[in-house]
Amino acid sequence: MAQRQRLIVGNWKMHKTISEARDFVAHLAGLLPKSPHVEIVLAPPFTALSAVADAIKSLPIGLSAQDVHWEDHGAFTGEVSPLMIKDLGCRYVIVGHSERRRHFGETDAMVNKKVAAVLRHGLRPILCVGETGEQRANGQTERVLSGQLTDALAGVGKEQAADVVVAYEPVWAIGSGQPATAEQARDAHRHIRARATALWGQDAGARLPVLYGGSVTPDNIGAFLALREVDGALVGGACLDPTQFVKILAVAHTNP
Ligand code: PGA
After folding, report:
1. pLDDT tens across 27-39, in order?
2. Taking the complete model, does pTM exceed 0.85, yes or no?
3. Which atom of ligand 1 lies at the shortest distance from residue 213's CA?
4. Is-catalytic flag, 103?
5. Most Cβ neighbours (<10 Å): which of 95, 175, 224, 250?
6. What domains, with CATH codes, occur in the chain?
7. CA of 4 relative to ligand 1 center, distance in Å
């Protein structure tokens, strides 16, 4: 069987100073599995992007921002533009993470503007979608995912589809130590791919990388990657320690 390409993204959230970020990369560099079919991406906070960009220069590691504003520049105190992110050497930007939606009032309309801005600059959005525990309990998971995808991807044409990554992150699974079951992930990923196929057609839908995120650990990543529907993972808590993160990468490496 041909090796599948995996994408493992470490979302540091609001963790690590510049010196801690440098230490992390130095430690990781010594442990990295050589795996051409696992793409590794780190998403440090804005303050550490420059230092990490520098530290990973000779390593097979890509860089992502955790958020972005949709304008190139202007009077938007505290915000960071896609131009600035690109200038730092990022290739990816996490967009619409549920923590941004929940704590900072980010709406689907804002997420849509961010996705468009990221694509306009030739960067790749990692678009996060996912239902809350209450929505799942009420049988609304598919409706919520459909709504988030339709709104966030409005105006994104077939020709831009190849740059889009979607992360399925059930809100109730994030940071809770209670990951989705393999079956829940499989069903949600299938639904996401079906929506992408309806939007962009069979080829683009089939090629869309769909990551799973929510309490991923070295112990459970294998069950997710064993699913045909899962192309990789967006990892939070378990990516902060290089030893743990490397264990996750090792599982991805051995899971064709
Ligand atoms: P977690 O976070 O792995 O700590 O659950 C995942 C995420 O929020 O991207």
Report:
1. 999 998 888 899 9
2. yes
3. 6
4. no
5. 95
6. 6-254 (3.20.20.70)
7. 23
Length of the chain: 256
Find where tokens 């639904």 sit. Answer: 191
Ligand 1 contact via 232 beta carbon (within 6 Å): no
Contact assessment for residue 163 and residue 180, using Cβ atoms and an 8 Å cutoff: no
One-letter amino acid of 35? S
Q: Which of the four pLDDT bands, split at 50, 70 and 90, describes residue 149?
A: very high
CB of 211 sitting under 6 A from ligand 1: no
Confirm if 228 and 187 have CB atoms less than 8 A apart. Answer: no
175 C-alpha to center of ligand 1: Å? Answer: 5
Ligand 1 touching residue 170 (CB < 6 A)? no
DSSP state of 229: T
Non-local CB neighbours of 17 within 8 Å, separated by 6+ positions = 47, 48
119-140 per-position pLDDT tens digit: 999 999 999 999 999 999 999 9
Question: Is pLDDT above 80 for 108?
Answer: yes
Cα–Cα distance for residue pair 121/176, rounded to 1 Å: 35
Other C-beta atoms within 10 Å of 199: how many? Answer: 18
Atom 7, ligand 1: residue with shortest CA distance: 236
Ordered DSSP codes for 56-87: TTTSSEEEEES---SSSSSS-TT---HHHHHH
**CA distances (Å), origin 196, targets 101, 118, 157, 171:** 22, 18, 11, 21
Q: Which of 184, 166, 185, 225 is nearest to 3 (CA)?
A: 225
Question: CA–CA separation, 51 vs 199, rounded Å?
Answer: 38
Task: Find, among 78, 157, 158, 67, the residue nearest to 118 by Cα.
Answer: 67
Active site residue 97: yes
